[in-house]
Amino acid sequence: MTVTAAIVGSGNIGTDLLYKLLRSPVIEPRWMAGIDPESPGLRLAASHGLVTGAGGADWLLSQEPRPDLVFEATSAAVHRAGAPRYAEAGIRAIDLTPAAVGPAVVPEVNLGEHRDAVNVNLITCGGQATIPIVHAVSRVTPVSYAEIVASVASRSAGPGTRANIDEFTRTTSRGLETIGGAARGKAIIVLNPAEPPLIMRDTVFCAVSPDADQAAVTKSIVDRVSEISAYVPGYRLLDEPQYDPAGDQLRVGIFIEIEGAGDYLPKYAGNLDIMTAAATRVGEELAGSPDH
Prior knowledge:
The protein is an alpha/beta fold. It folds into 2 domains: about 5-100, Rossmann fold (3-Layer(aba) Sandwich), CATH 3.40.50; about 125-265, Dihydrodipicolinate Reductase, domain 2 (2-Layer Sandwich), CATH 3.30.360.10. Helices cover about 35% and strands about 25% of the residues. A 6-stranded parallel β-sheet has the order 3-2-1-4-5-6, sandwiched between helices. Helix 1 (about 10-20) runs parallel beside helix 2, helix 1 crosses helix 10 (about 270-285) and helix 6 (about 125-140) packs parallel to helix 8. It is globular, with a radius of gyration of 19 Å. One of its GO terms (molecular function) is NAD binding.
C-alpha cells in the first residue's frame, strides 16, 4: 500500500530526503513546506510535481487532503511546536531533528517496538551511526561505558545542525544508554574544517569485561554493519575492531566511515545521508503498519 507524505523543511536535509522518497515503492511525497519562497529545495520539489508552500506547518495543515506521514527536517524547536498539531490532525511524524518528542528510533535496533507510534524521533546523525554499534556490543557482553566521537565536515553542518549542538550531545549520549545498552554514555561532535571536506568518521569506544568473547563481539559488529549498509550503502568499517586493556577492563575500539549516496548533497555529507536514509527506512516500515 502506498502512503502519502509531506516534507517540512526545504533545506539540505529535506531536499536530499525528497530524492530518496521519490524512489520509494511505498511512500508518495506530495507536499514540501518551507519558509523561504525562493528556496532551491522548494523549486526542486515543485519540478518533481510536489505541491509546495512557504508557510511552514501552518500552510501544510491547511491542505486537503492531508498527508499520512510528515517528515520534519527543520530544527528541534520548530518540531516541538509542530508535533502536537500533527498528532491532532492525525498525521504520523518522523522527526529528523533532535527534538526527542517521540520515542527514539534506530531502525535496525528498536523500530519494531515503535511501529505504531504517532511520532518517532531519529535522534542524531551520530546516534544513527554509532548507537547500533554499541548495541551490537552490548547484546553480546555488558558495556559499562560507551563514548563516541563523530567527526563531520564543517561544510555539511548547516544552521540547523549548528543550532542543535547541545541537543546533539545530550540526545546522542542518552541514546547510547537507553538504546545502545551502555550503562553510561558520552557523545562528542567535531566539525572538521579540512578542505577538501572529509567524509563522516565515527570512533566508538566500549568498555567491557576482560573476559568478553572477542570473536563474538567482532561478529556482532560486522553483522550490524552489514545490516545498516543495506539502506546506507556508504556505511562501512574502516578496520577490524581493536581490543586493548584499559585498567581492569577491556576497551573495544570501532572505527566507521559513512560516504553519502550523492543524491542531492555531496558524497562527503554522509552525516546527512544516514539521516535521510534512516528516515526513509522508518517511513517505509510505518507505511506497512496496521494504521495504514
